[in-house]
Amino acid sequence: MQPAIYGMAGERLTADERAFFRNADPAGYILFARNVSSIEQVRALTDELRSLHGRDDVPILIDQEGGRVARMKPPVWPPFPTGERFAKLYDISPVGAIEAARANAQAIAVTLREVGINVDCLPLLDVRQPGAHDIIGDRALGSEPMQVAALGRAVLEGLQAGGVVGVVKHMPGHGRSMADSHKELPVVDASEQELETDIEPFRTLNWAPMGMTAHVVFTAWDRNYCGSLSSRVIGDIIRGRIGFDGWLMSDDLGMHALSGEFGARASGVLAAGCDVALHCSGDMAEMQSIANELGDMSDQARRRLDRAMATVEGQGAGPDYAELAARRDELLAYA
To answer: What EC number is given for this enzyme (predicted)?
Structure first.
């Protein structure tokens, strides 16, 4: 199994994609808006991805956060609130906000499982900082680490109850970045003491099954490499100080925070300590470049992946979407 997660170009696999994926045998796949149009279409696509390798538990990811980051959109799929909505309710009723976040996450999971998606890149544990770039902004669960961790825990629990694995992101924290890593490389000059605020939610939820790194330079830890490419950030901070031992993926290799040839980007994040390299665009030339550089996923990474996917075995039975959404909306009405 190759330590890569790949995207695809459209709503159905092309013959070239089918052949490439069979040969590469990637660890998983990720879907975007270009890949989804109807419940029946997405289910057929995810069924085919599983059948390529005979792996029922192959991770099929999506970014379905709510608000502006949602790949599955109305009118086919329901809208979901931003993280900020739950943060505002937390100021009034922490218990109510936690319950609402859990119900919302389980409602998301219900819609994902219906179409065969079993991993959601959620929750964000980035602590919102005043004056930072709005790439995180209203996606955040708050500006206080304990609150972010409490709501993040509820999201992980809600997703799991609905049969979907959650991914904590963006480790070790994207909340104080002054730039959008999709467009350029952010550099954070905060002190180690200040960065304790950023890593606290990740440390509290270090048992999470999966995590995603940040393409951000933290000068207090490594002036030369962003977190995704830094063995010090991954080894000393994410694996060490935070204590995270889940399956760790890079953020998207196609983001402009990174540079260089795609095979080198992939081998770089793996050499730094990521378990798997994430590539989202579905560009065949880029994927082939990555595949040519990668060997098999390490035994340790495979164990982490198996452990993560096992957390949702037997999950998914429970309230339907309407019941969960109604409970969420009843609680959010107080904010």
So the answer is: 3.2.1.52
